[in-house]
Amino acid sequence: MSFQTGVRSRPDLVVEAADVTDVQRAITQGLPVSAQATGHGAMSSDGGVLINTARLDHVHIDPQARTAEVGAGVTWDGVVREAARHGLAPLSGTSPTVGVAGYTLGGGLSPLSRRYGYAADHVLSVDIVLPSGEHRRVSADDEDLFWALRGAGRSFGVVTSLRFKLFPVDRILGGSLTFDPARFPEVLQHYRKWTDEVPDDLTSALALTNFPDSPGMPPPLRGRKVLRVVVVGGEEPALEPLRRIGVLEDTVRAMRYADIAAVFAEPTTPHGFQGDAVVATDLDPAAAADFADLFDPGAEHAMFLVVHHLGGAMATPPTPANAVGHRDARFLVRATTPVVYPAAAGLGALHSTMIEKLGRGSKRRMLNFLFGDAPQQAATCYDPADHRRLTELKRRIDPTNLIRPARGI
């Protein structure tokens, strides 16, 4: 079962791979191939082979080398727990149930990314079954493929395991500052200015959310509208400019990094969702006033609008370089709505209009933040020269387009 229940797929064959040999057999059937572990980014499709990698679930932590080697079916909660036993942390996402492989191959935006970079920047090797059926461990010696896998890796084969760096992070500042949601345009303006000055070890996101008064919503949130800034890292003095503008609730505290998922409180139960996101070099706070009606608790659908502060170490390409795009972006602006299948008509256009206005017309996107059946293609996620290089490599490695992930090259 996919975590994303808002779209439906009808493959001809589903293979629950227990080992590399199962993956190789599935690929050599001659049918189009896609793979998933948790299905957070699943899209509707018909036909072909769907390889479920959830049973490839090994986790090995080397505390001396500060590395982890994990199977393609592992989710972040398992890696975070094991690394924490040694005072280490991976560049995990905000949700503990997201699969490590898909997240990392698409770039990987972590609460630690302003300090250390994208998760893809710290991959040491990738084990992959190529369209030919060959199982290969790819590292820096294989320059072109290693470059492509770290940022566009789902298009070139089926990954069976990853090896990546861990970081000496045990305790960290984490929590949220809650504001009056009626002040959203004002708070957004303050937030935009505040991010100009914060240190690289402080990651934050501003989120405006409405929860309709309906039976499907959690009782404590039903009929509410919430505006908050989530922060991870940094030091207390860096938060004072935000606190001075009027905080209704302050939950920021020192905590274990292993517990950081509780700060974001991402849903862990499979559900349907539709959304879109753009990366932008700047924000237009004046556009925020145009969205007030969409965040009325009386509206039919819940709406989540989140502005992530990027930059820091993410702005610097790693050595060796990888395919992660748009490193000049300062913000990721995303909108998400929980939906049932099929998604409500017009939601996709509504999301795109909202985030593109707030992002000053940007149409550049990030691969891991294309949700549901939104029509945006992978080309929007990369710089043009990099996309051409990826396309040429895809033609060499997979001339018949056997590997067909959602929004692939």
UniProtKB/TrEMBL annotation:
Keywords: FAD, Flavoprotein, Oxidoreductase
InterPro entries in the record: FAD-bd_PCMH (IPR016166), FAD-bd_PCMH-like_sf (IPR036318), FAD-bd_PCMH_sub2 (IPR016169), FAD-linked_Oxidoreductase (IPR050416), Oxid_FAD_bind_N (IPR006094)
Domain FAD-binding PCMH-type intervals: 7-169
Domain of life per record: Bacteria
GO molecular function: FAD binding; oxidoreductase activity
Names of the cofactor(s): FAD
PROSITE patterns, A to Z: FAD_PCMH
Family: Belongs to the oxygen-dependent FAD-linked oxidoreductase family.
Protein name: FAD/FMN-containing dehydrogenase
Organism, as annotated: Labedaea rhizosphaerae
